[in-house]
Each structure stands twice: as C-alpha cells, then as structure tokens.
Predict the structure.
Amino acid sequence: MDDAQRRAQDDRWRLLQRMEVARTNQNVVVWTVVSIFAAAHALLFQSFVTARAAAPEHARLAWTVAIVGVVASGVTGVLVDRAIRFLTLHETVVADVERALGLVEKFRLCEGTTARRAIFYGSFGAKQTLRLFSVLVVAGWSAAAVFMAYLLWPASTAFMVASCLTIGTALGVVAAVNLAA
C-alpha cells in the first residue's frame, strides 16, 4: 500500500469514527424528543381528564385541550420522523464507509448487515415503534377531540365540522408519517 492509499484508508477510519459519534448523538436526539413529548402528552392528558371530570361547564376546556393534543401530536410525529431520517442517513454513511474499508460483515456497526438482522429478526424495531407511537398519539387525541365535540354539540353542524377537521388532521399526519417512512 503506497502513501496515498494509506492516507485515504486513515481518512476513512476517521470518517467512520466521526459518523458513528454523529449517529450516536442523533440517537440521543431521537429519544430526547420522544421523552419530552411523551411527558408533554402525559400533562395534557392529565389536564384533559381533570377538565372533563370537574364539571360540565369545563367541557369546552377539555375539548380545547384535546385540540392542543392533536396539534402537539402532529408536531411530535413530524419531529420524530425528521430525527429518524437523520439517524438513517448517518447509518447509511457508516455502512458505506465500512464497506469501503472492507470490514468483515460480522464486525460492521451498521444495522443493515446480515449479522445484525439475524439478531433482530422478527422483532419490531425502535424506528417502527417510535413511528407507531406518533400515530397512536395522533389517533388518541383525535378521538378525544371528537368525543368532546360530540358532548358539546350533539348532532349539530359545528360537531360535524369539528369532527371532519380533527379526523382530517389526524389522517393527514398519519399519512405523512407512514408514507414518508
């Protein structure tokens, strides 16, 4: 191996090291975003239950909290999806560098290797779990908003409009998260 090839190989090793650190940092970002939004949704849910149980005059407050939950869950889905996409990008670069270095497959860090797939075969991965979490939160808040709208405006035009808007928003977020995956 001549000097230029050795430098190129050293550069690839440094790139691999930097990309693995970047991938690890992005993984931390993903779980931090999920944790913060999970806590926010727990607080919103507590507010929703408290407003709903307090008295009938607080039904509009409970509906408002549910609408805020729908919006927050949409933001959750978008941010989680964005973070997962960056994580996937880092993993792709790591896999490319590992292949360029000629590493034996069983020593590669990237998830796409045959050895890694054998370990996780049949399981529901973290990325799919996080996307499912986002979709379920949107669906849950949408159901709460529709339920409260029904209690506030039974069989009225306002209920129908609120239901359509809520369900439309939920389906739009669900479609965006799942189709973009």
About this structure: Residues 3-180 form one domain. The mean pLDDT is 79. The first helix runs from residue 3 to 54. The two ends are 42 Å apart (CA to CA).
